[in-house]
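Predict both folds.
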Amino acid sequence: MTADKFGKICGIAALVLLAVGLATGMLVAPRERIMGDVYRIMFVHFPSWVGTAAGYLTAFVASIAYIKTRDFKWDYWGQAGAEVGLLFNVTGLITGALWGRPTWGVYWTWDPRLTTTAIMAITFAGYLVLRAFMEDPESRARAASLVAIVGFVNVPIVYFSVRWWRTLHQVQSSPETVDPQMVWPLRAMMLAFLLLGVFMMTRRVMLARLRGEEEMEMVRLEVARD
């Protein structure tokens, strides 16, 4: 099975799960005892971090593979993972702020979880800026790979921050601490965001490959003229 076909299957499955997850999360899951209906934003907020982790992990693994092999296909996957991961990262920050205002009283506080998450987003935004300003394909791929590898170090820090430091943000929930009627739509949405991330990355890799081939052809033409 090609990556293109696999990506399309993931995209279709993601749409189905999104429909099921949103419908059950909004219409079937009960109101939360303290927060009421405000908590329902978690059906987008939590899954966005699944997409974030999947994207950044892809960028991390692909970057290591590129440094080891110098094969540009890994650079394409690294770029795709960073872009998709950043998209979900920003989604998580925005939904978190919208959730924080009615529950904490503020949109933003310099809580360790929020701060490390913002640093993570800034790092991978820097990754994309770096790529935009470097013209040599090999130098760009090598420098970007190093940034992605270093940036990924922050991912486990973000995850464990609520356990390592006293924080306003609550620790991770588990199926044992959540109503069963909330668990299943949440799982459906988490899987949907994961599959959506895979779909988006496969599309982005195809575009990066086309642009990479055009770029290499221009380099060959310039060398031929000289």
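Second protein follows, with its predicted structure tokens after the sequence.
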Amino acid sequence: MEIESFFSKEQVINIKSPEKQLAIREMVTKLEELGMIDHVDRFYAQVIHRETLENTGIGHGFAIPHARTDSVDRFLCIFATAPEGIEYQSYDNEPVRYLLLSIFPTSMSTKYLYLVGMMARLFSSEDKRSAFDEARTPAKIYALLKKEAKSYFASISQKDPVSGSEDPSDLSGVPSSNLDLIIRLDRLYQLSDTEKNNPGLEAKIKELKRLIDNRSLTYYERMRKKMQNPFAILDKTSCSGCHMELPPVYLAQIKEGKGIPLCNQCGRFLIIL
């Protein structure tokens, strides 16, 4: 999966604003300058409203301000660096130096969560953060993002040593929106792996688990214990996790969107981008 699937090099900028609200407005204004949106005030208000519901500073100097709105019909985002740091009230109280602002329709929530999962894992690594700190210019940062996007996709496309084929549970009756919640839960579990005994994270995990259908939650937790990554990309007609071709009839069922899509070979949750 190429970074170009999400944003171009023109959508990587350095920002000068030292305050959270000003930084967000600067990013939204850049989207207007690129001809991607109009009505800056409206979209700025939507992003800020989302911030009032829950702070999007997710730790390690990284923040993900965003708005899910059907007033756009495509996935829009911009990546910004703030070398001096912005006080963002993140859960780890660290100033934010990297921001990914996204505006997207509801139908593209899974695409958004894939991108956020990739970026969150990237900035949880001290070595990778140091590489971005040294890059400084938007051109060099974009080159690093391209490299890391390919590496991330390769990592989730590696086979795990699972014996035999899986017999995935029938999740056809579970709303596909539950997959978004499961991806969010997985990201929180990843954070908790690096932030041991964090009461704030534990509370978020507990709260999110209450929102997920019991069948899909039970299935996710079983798969998470069984393999390193319980998710895979639907790459045309194949699962990127086990690299097996999915039968045409099964693909047709997935496209109907009547439930959470699973690979009928390895059992992974299938992310459709």
